Amino acid sequence: MYLRACSRVVRDTAVLCTRPLVSARQGSASWFLTAGNAACSRGGRNGFIFTPACFITSEAFLNRLMKGKAAEADGSFYRLPASVPPDSGEQLSLLLRPPDQPDNAKVLKVAILGAPNAGKSTLTNQLLRTKVFAVSKKVHTTRARALGVLTEDDTQIILLDTPGLTTPSKVKRHQLEKSLLVDPWNTVKEADLMVVVVDVADRWMSRTLDFEVLKCLAQHPDIPAVLVLNKVDLVKSKDKLLESTVELTCGVVNGRRMRVRPVIKPPWAEKRPERDSELSLDEDMAGPEGSSEPNSTLNKEHLKELRSQQGWPHFKDVFMLSSLDKEDVETLKSYFMVAAKPGSWQYHSEVLTDQSPEEVCTNIIREKLLEYLPQEVPYSMTQAIELWYDSENGELDISVKLYAKKESHMSMVIGPAGQMVARIAREAGEDLSQVYLREVRLKLSVKLSK
């Protein structure tokens, strides 16, 4: 079944057309948008004929319909992913190994930005085809910048997964690491492309870019940026995706203005969310603490102007996807491959991440703590690795002690008859087995910190 929506062209205005292709897979849809100077006229029973100038979003499902299983049969789709060596010495040696440069090597550094819990780490994991970065429904799961490396054929994509952009007041209020203030800003300086991820299923964030993200974009206008509307599978009304696109891009994509026919809403329709007025302009002016280049280029007038904006009018392209859908993410990956420029690889093709095996382990355990423990409990927990033994039979034995600040917290972690801590150990061990490509036996114990 095809659904089509198209707006009339206004003078000096491009057209935005949508063409959701609804598959038989539980009614999911892959959206194919076009924006450009198109001649849009009435024709046929479908209403309009248009000539697209550029596409915005996933065409994976369309390609599958046209090519059948040819694309899936491509061996590169099922290339065995790199893994993290379970020995920190091996991982360091791998990181220091000279890159195995191919002929006509290409490289692209991608900074993945967004508000906390927008789905940045889930998207990065899907691009890498391996769960390397911790993911949970709670905010601030990623606590420091992490790097993932996707190497395919002659192209290397360096994915810079960053903590969600936040403010000094929130870091102080929730007792978070100061790295959350510094890492995202420093990471952007390295990037060739910025990817801004928005949780379009969040009714408060789907129409307005996070102010810290806007500040970051304004600070680096010379770096190309694309918008990724994530979690589209959770949006029941697909018309809202168009409205969100217009709001988040200020109606401009790749320098071309787009227009969507307005929908008459009833008086009780939800109002546009207002910006968080929690911070003063003086606090906004303060750069990331410890940053070598404070955010001083944004003066009060510029910040005031940004506060009046809902979105960013300089995005090159827009993608609508679910980071859980491999086909959607495959389209984004292909976009990165095309955007890569000739240049020397920075890592050997076997490198998956710059994290040590111990860092991967503690991050995955923290993910499970965040997933299963309530409120502030997981944020107050600390970890210490007591045993890391790679046995002769290929199994990896890991023992980690968890420290809780309160006896009540310790009881929550242990759970009735030790069921909670056993579940966390089992699920974390399964994830780690996929990262290290070997059997992992993880033991967790809980102690009250002094």
Q: Care to describe what's here?
A:
There is one protein chain. Helices cover 31% and strands 20% of the residues. With 450 residues, the chain is of the alpha/beta class. The longest helix is centred in the last third of the chain and has 18 residues, at 419-436. Mean pLDDT is 75; it is low at 1-58, 60-79, 170-175, 177-183 and 276-296.
Short overview:
The protein is α/β, with parallel strands linked by helices and 450 residues long.
Terminal CA distance: 63 Å
Radius of gyration: 23 Å
Summarize the main sheet: 7 strands, mixed
Percent range of helical residues: 25-40%
Shape, principal axes of CA atoms: globular
- Taking pLDDT < 50 over at least 5 consecutive residues as the criterion, the unreliable ranges are 1-58, 60-79, 170-175, 177-183, 276-296
* Strand-pairing-aware structural class: alpha/beta
Quantity of strands, as a count: 20
As a percent range, the share of strand residues is 15-25%
Number of helices, where a helix is a run of at least 4 consecutive DSSP H or I residues = 15
Mean pLDDT: 75
